[in-house]
C-alpha cells in the first residue's frame, strides 16, 4: 500500500465505492463525470463547493457588476461535446454571446488580422459564456443523473491499495474507486500527492479580468490588441435584452504594470483601458470590480499514473492569450470518454494501463503544440527591437492575405479540425 503525505496512516480494507471517482467539479471535471455516467460507469464526483451555490439562479444583467468576470470562449468542438452531454441547450438558455468576427492587431505597429465566420462557412467563431453558466448547466444535469455527488467537502488525502485508489475527505470520510480522475485545477493536490512532476514557466505577468460597458456596440467581435507588455482582449457579451455594449476583458500585463493598473480608481482605469484598446469601441463607460490572476504556464510531464488520470488545468494550464484553456480541457474529456467507452465495450477495467497510456499519447501532442504556439506569440510580441517589429507587422499583414493558411489556423482554434468523440 502506498500512502501520500496527505493520505491516512492506514487505508481501510474495503471494496470500491465507485468505478470512477472524479475530483473537482469545475468546467472540466463535471463534464467528465456526466459523460462517464452516461456510458454506464458508476461515477462519484467530489466538489469543494456546495451544490446550492453551483446551481443558484443567475440574475438578469443590467450593469457590469451583474456578469461573472471569468468567461470562456468556447470553440465549436467544445460546444459539440457539451451538446452530446445534453448540456448545450441549457447553456444557450442562459446568457451567452456567439461571435462572428475576431480582430487581432499589433499595438506597436500596423499589422492586423481579421477572422470572419462567414469566410469559414460557419455561423460563429465561438461563443463567450460566463463560466458559472456552463457549470450550472452541467450540475443541473448531474443532479438528474446517477452521478454520486459529494459536494461541499474537500479532498485532503490520497492512498492506493492493490487495485483500488482512495481519497480522504476533510470531514473524515474515505472513498475508494478503481480509477480516480483529477480535475482539481491548476494547483492539483492529487497531481502533487501522486508525485507527477510538471514543467512550469512563470511569465511574471498577471491577467486582470473584469466586465466593462462601452460607448459603441462590440459588433459580435472578439478584439485582441498585442503590446510589448502583454495582450488585451475585449470579449463580447450579451445581456438578456441583447444589449451589445458589454465586454469581458482579459488584460495580461507584466506584474509591476498590472499592480499599478489594479491600484487605479475606476475612472482612471477606464481611461487607460480606452487608450489601450485604441478606442475601437468608443468610451469605456463603466468597469466592474477587477480581479488579478498570476500567469503561469504549467504542463504535467505525465498525465497518468496507476489508477489515476489528470484532465483540464490539473494536466496543463496555458496563457489565456488565445482563450484555449477550457477548450483543451474539453478535448481531454472527449478523448478520455472515447477511450473509456472502448474499455467498457471490451469488458476492461476503467484503470486499464494501456488505455490510460493511449489517452496520454493522444492528448499530450496537441496540448504541447498549443502551449508552444502561445509561448511563441508571447515572445514575438514581447520584443521591441526594430527588425522584430518590422517582421511582426509585415508578417501579420501578409498572413491576413493568406486565405487558406489563415483559415486553417482559425479552424484549429475553433476545434473544427478535431473530430468530436461520439462514444
Ligand atoms: C484570466 C483567465 C482567463 C481565461 N479565459 C479563458 C477563455 O477565454 N477560454 C478558455 O477556454 N479558457 C480560459 N481560461 C482558462 C479556463 O478558465 C481554465 O482552463 C478552466 O477553468 C479549467 O477548468 P478545470 O475544471 O480544469 O479547473 P478549475 O476551473 O480550476 O476547477 C477545479 C475545481 O476543483 C475543485 N477543487 C479543487 N481542489 C479540490 C479539492 N481538494 N477537493 C474538492 N474539490 C476541489 C474546485 O472547487 C473547482 O471547482 C482562462 C483562465 C484565466 C486565468
Structure characterization notes:
It is a single chain. This protein is an alpha+beta fold and 423 residues long. The protein has one domain: 3-Layer(bba) Sandwich (FAD/NAD(P)-binding domain), CATH 3.50.50.60. 35% of the residues lie in helices and 29% in strands. Strands 1, 2, 3, 9, 10, 11, 12, 19 and 20 form a nine-stranded mixed sheet that branches. The longest helix has 30 residues, at 353-382. The protein starts with a strand and ends in a 10-residue tail after the last helix.
What are the key terms here?
423 residues; alpha+beta; FAD/NAD(P)-binding domain; 21 strands; 35% helix; disordered C terminus; binds flavin-adenine dinucleotide
Blueprint of the fold:
Elements: E1 2-3, E2 18-23, H1 27-38, E3 43-47, H2 51-54, E4 71-74, H3 76-84, H4 88-93, E5 97-99, E6 101-106, E7 112-116, E8 126-130, H5 131-143, E9 148-151, E10 155-161, E11 164-169, E12 174-182, H6 189-193, E13 198-214, E14 221-226, E15 232-237, E16 246-254, H7 255-263, H8 266-276, E17 284-287, E18 291-300, E19 304-305, E20 308-310, E21 316-317, H9 325-345, H10 353-382, H11 386-401, H12 403-413
Parallel strand pairs: 2-3, 2-12, 3-9, 6-14, 12-20
Antiparallel strand pairs: 1-10, 4-8, 5-8, 6-7, 10-11, 11-12, 13-16, 13-17, 13-18, 14-15, 15-16, 18-21, 19-20
Bound molecules: flavin-adenine dinucleotide.
Largest sheet: 9 strands, mixed
Q: What distance separates the N and C termini? A: 34 Å
CATH class type: Alpha Beta
Could you say what the CATH architecture is? 3-Layer(bba) Sandwich
Number of domains: 1
The share of residues in extended strands comes to 25-35%
CATH superfamily name? Answer: FAD/NAD(P)-binding domain
Structural class: alpha+beta
Round the Cα radius of gyration to an integer and report it. Answer: 22 Å
β-strand number: 21
- Helical fraction equals 25-40%
